[in-house]
Write a structure and sequence with these properties.
It is a single chain. The protein contains 4 helices and 6 strands; from the N terminus they run E-E-E-H-H-E-H-E-H-E. It is globular and about 35 Å long. The two termini are 14 Å apart. It is an alpha/beta fold. It has a 6-stranded mixed β-sheet with strand order 1-2-4-3-5-6. It has one domain: Rossmann fold, CATH 3.40.50.1820. Helices cover 26% and strands 19% of the residues.
Length: 157
């Protein structure tokens, strides 16, 4: 990315601050929902993840966020799935997102599926992503990118 994205905070209904960033200027939104332990600033230092985000940001407005209790978000007890969905809703409201594709990694896949089933403004192209290949920590192309949605992002990332 040429310029650093600014960290902002969405405030949940119960007053918790959820850190997020947006990258790219696409007309459509893509939300990357991370696994359990996550800090997007640290993740963006990993070259494979950064290339993936840059590739997605060439087409979409990518929304990254730290879940409640992780990264730059407020430290709170780990919430249940409904509360996590409310936190995601706060981030989408703060970014004025009207509709979004959800990409859920590992534990984030459960939140993506739950959120998609609970709200109508989620793209039918959302998908869970749970697999890894190679060495631990090496990010790979989500399985759905290799199918029909593969036309949605550039090759070579």
């Amino acid at each position: 990315m040429a310029a650093e994205a600014e960290t902002r905070y969405a405030v949940t209904a119960d007053g918790v601050y959820i850190a997020y960033q947006t990258r790219g200027n696409g007309a459509d939104d893509l939300v990357f929902i991370p696994g359990f332990a996550w800090n997007y600033e640290v993740a963006l230092e990993e070259p494979h993840f950064l290339r993936m985000v840059e590739a997605m940001a060439a087409r979409w407005r990518v929304i990254l966020f730290d879940k409640r209790g992780t990264g730059l978000s407020d430290r709170q007890n780990t919430p249940d799935l409904e509360m996590r969905a409310d936190d995601l809703r706060a981030v989408l409201d703060a970014t004025d997102s009207r509709s979004a594709v959800l990409v859920g990694q590992a534990e984030g896949a459960a939140l993506a599926a739950f959120f998609a089933a609970s709200y109508r403004n989620v793209s039918p192209h959302s998908w869970p992503w749970t697999g890894r290949r190679g060495s631990p920590g090496r990010l790979i192309t989500p399985w759905a990118f290799r199918g029909k949605p593969s036309r949605l992002i550039p090759t070579g990332w």
